[in-house]
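Task card 7
Instruction: Convert sequence to structure tokens.
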Amino acid sequence: MSEKKPLDVLLGELKERAKELNCLYQVQELLNNPENTIDDICNGLVEAIPPGWQYPDICRAKIQLHTNTYASDDLVETEWVLKSDIHIQNEVVGQICVFYEEEAPPMDEGPFLKDERKLINTIAERLGLHLLHQQLKNVFEKQSQADTEHKKEWEVILDMLRQTNPKLLIRLSRKMVNYLCWTGVKKAEELLERFGSAFHDEGELIDENKPFKKSSDSDLVSLSYEIFEIAEENLTLDKILNNIQKWTKEDRSGFLSKVLENMGSSLQDINNAIERYHHLAPQMLELSEAREKGLRVAMIRRILTDQSDYIDIAKRFVDVNSFNELLNKIISPVGSHGKLGGKSAGLFLANQMIKKYTPEFESFAEVKIPKTWYITSDGLLNFMDYNNLEEVMEQKYKDIGQIRQEYPYVIQLFKSSTFPPAIIKGLLMALDDFGSVPLIIRSSSLLEDRIGMAFAGKYKSLFIANQGTREERLVALMDAIAEIYASVFGPDPIDYRAENDLLDYHEEMGIMIQQV
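Output:
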């Protein structure tokens, strides 16, 4: 039977969830009251937010919206801040900031809890949706008051986008003119040249040394109406409206593409974006085959591996939702940019392949995948930095005899070191999920299981009984992880790397924690 959490821990977590739910309830009340102006809502939010945080007495909030600022009384901006952008149609229009006036114990993101990150993102998202609703309401009211001239349905949509989201209007127009060109509409090809991006005649070659003239947004918006006039001449109204709807739904996934393609995005940023994507209603999103494949490849490259051979296989078996499940089982340092390592990537791919082929091969349903938690590869570097162990990195360049002689000392040095608070918190979550069952702690380095590499047996894997109190189980788990980290600097893996000209390769060590 799995071990229960101590009563005080359970009560503490329940109190935090109750505060967060009460905060969301107050937020929704402010947004649902039709008599509230935007000023009323924002002033109400800066008062409703602090009670939802772990330390409300030292918590203050501020909302920046367009050129207006709303803040708690006696607000003092400090370095301990949690921020979330307010978006309207993927355009940033403001920001919510939550400050602690005094230093608080380190948690998941500075002094803030992971659930507080989700809470502030939810509040920002709901405020953004409310602002969008108000914009659309104003547009329709103006439209109904306009002169009674008959307008086509697509023209009404373009009018609305011109006032609420001109950038989206330009993107839709570009897609439409490309669509028309692909179908062989000559007028569309002529219009495309006015964008300065098409050259079809042999005499109209690109001058390599002469920059193109930049078109202003106003020029592109005015061209949008000409594009849709041409579309009306060549397509049915249903086809035009269906394309607008499809491209608008696809555009809503732009936030995820931006996060994945930005190499500065942390694993937490990616997790937040995938979670946001996951919770959007399916009817609100529609991806083209190219966009969907691009997202899959970007997620594989950022989270699993950048090996082209692996990506070529994996992209046929994974989807966004499978990564959403995976990220909920990952432990990582604050601001992590690590990957899961070769062994973890292999297990994840095998699991996805089994899921895909189970309907075709019923025997696959009997294959059991052990419950697994992961620590990202940069956890090793974070551990070493936290304990000032940077000099150990030089071990790989020493004589193999000296490495062998000093290895027992390195093991003891690592086992006597401590883990960063963010990692400890994640390990406690993993232990609560596993319960009191035996575990195997496995290495999953960036070099392991690469094409043409055979690191089998070079790095350690350790069994632990996982029995006793919660604290005793945590100590045993951290002790095993530290010993696996130390094995990176052991004589056998360093000797193997030297034989294969891999000593200069930047090695990192991920960890798999699996139920036996």
